[in-house]
Structures are given as structure tokens and as C-alpha cells.
Design brief:
By secondary structure, the chain is α/β, with parallel strands linked by helices. The protein contains five helices and eleven strands; from the N terminus they run αββαβαβββαβαββββ.
């Protein structure tokens, strides 16, 4: 049995310990400004969130089996996806790269003892560095279905997954009903313009919007919105059964 977490982390991270729909737990995380931006118009984003927000992200990394990012984020930011601001193990690094665009020198491919996985579309030719596991999945219009990605990762032993970025990737998993939780960390800054946090299908009226059960946590000078999306989560792994 998992040990109880100390407060306030029990309230924040407790829901990630076990799934409510099946045996897979998927959390999305995005850091943004007060006006819902993740980067300036030029694409600069380091760092909108301050030390508190970045530490929260690294705590999330410690708790999961694997971190997932899209190839656009991997190319633009070249992130390490390691745990540096808190203590704990480095999770597996996963890149969704349907067309095999990411170069072999990318930091996510660094041979540092951490598991690395590359997800590509069927028919894609690529030669990742030695030791990188390749998962080949069918694509539709160049996109791989989020549910198929999570099912494949679960089959490779990654059952607690963090969808970290970028905004397009998180939006696709959200729209597909593939998130159990969504953590939105809001920093006390206003950019005025730039890249939006989410890109989702439009609705005609406000009463058609997705309304989400939510808890709010003050973490130093930033605010965390912990959104419960389990009611709309599609089945991915082995279903929960009553006992």
C-alpha cells in the first residue's frame, strides 16, 4: 500500500497514486502566465514560472514512470527532462515524433542511464541513438492517437505518465479524453501576447464549455489549478473491477 503523503503534497499528488478508470494514471502539466500564455510571440518561455512552479514540475517528474513531450517541444526547447530541483529518480523520457524529425544529438536522447523511448508513425524511417526504444504506431493525417500512445506505453511498463508539453500535445490528449488530471501552474506575470496554453475545438456558447471539478493550491507566489478530468477519461489499460 502506498504511504500517505505529507500535506500539502497529499492533496496535490494523492490522486496520482492510483487510477480511477483503469490501471493507468495520466496527468498533464502546463505552466503559464496570468493571461494564459506559455511563451512570448517570439517563442521565448524561460522562465515564465519561477522556482516554486519549476519545483512542482520536478516533483511531478519524480512521481511518474515516464514523461511525454511532442517533437516540436523537443526541437524548440531541447529539454533534458531530468529531476534536478528535487530529489528522486529520473523517469523515462518519451518523444512523440511521427515523422522522425528529431536529431540524434537531442538532450532527451542523452545516454545517462535513463530509459528513452521514441514514438514514430508506421512507415517512418529513423535511426535513433543506441539504446533508444522505438515504438511504431499507425497515424492518421500524420497524427498518432493519444489513446494508442498511452496503451503502447502501458505495454512497455509505463503506467503513470506525465504529459509535459508542449501546448499542442497537451491539448490533443485533453481533447481525446486521455487525461486523469491536469495541473495548470499560473505565474504572477502578464505577457500581453504570445502562445496560448491550449488549442482546442471551439464551442459556440459558453454553456457548452468543459467545466471541470478543481482544487486550487497556493504554492509560494504561484497558483496551482488541479483539475479532475477522470469523468471524461476514456479507458486505456485494464479496467477497474469491483471487489
Amino acid at each position: 500500500m502506498p504511504q500517505p503523503l505529507p500535506q500539502p503534497w497529499g492533496d496535490i499528488f494523492g490522486p496520482l497514486q492510483k487510477g480511477t478508470v483503469d490501471d493507468v494514471v495520466v496527468v498533464g502539466q502546463i505552466g503559464q502566465s496570468l493571461d494564459g500564455r506559455i511563451a512570448t510571440e517570439s517563442g521565448h518561455s524561460k522562465y515564465i514560472n519561477g522556482p516554486a512552479g519549476l519545483a512542482h514540475l520536478h516533483r511531478l517528474r519524480v512521481l511518474v514512470d515516464g514523461i511525454v513531450i511532442g517533437v516540436g517541444t523537443a526541437i524548440a526547447d531541447d529539454p533534458q527532462l531530468t529531476v534536478r530541483r528535487v530529489s528522486g529518480p529520473h523517469p523515462a523520457r518519451v518523444v512523440i515524433d511521427p515523422k522522425g524529425r528529431l536529431g540524434r544529438e537531442a538532450k532527451v536522447f542523452a545516454s545517462d542511464g535513463t530509459r528513452r523511448l521514441l514514438i514514430v508513425a508506421q512507415g517512418t524511417r529513423c535511426a535513433p541513438p543506441p539504446g533508444v526504444e522505438t515504438i511504431v504506431l499507425p497515424a492518421n493525417d500524420g497524427q498518432i492517437a493519444p489513446a494508442a500512445i498511452l496503451a503502447a506505453l502501458a505495454g512497455h511498463g509505463l503506467r503513470r505518465v506525465l504529459i509535459e508539453g508542449g501546448a499542442v500535445t497537451i491539448s490533443r490528449f485533453l481533447a481525446a479524453g486521455c487525461l486523469d488530471r491536469l495541473h495548470v501552474m499560473v505565474a504572477p506575470v502578464i505577457l500581453g501576447a504570445g502562445y496560448a496554453s491550449f488549442t482546442l475545438p471551439p464551442v459556440e456558447r459558453a454553456d457548452q464549455a468543459l467545466r471541470i471539478p478543481m482544487h486550487v493550491h497556493q504554492i509560494e507566489d504561484e497558483v496551482l489549478y488541479d483539475c479532475d478530468l477522470s469523468a471524461q477519461r476514456v479507458p486505456i489499460g485494464a479496467a477497474k473491477t469491483s471487489t
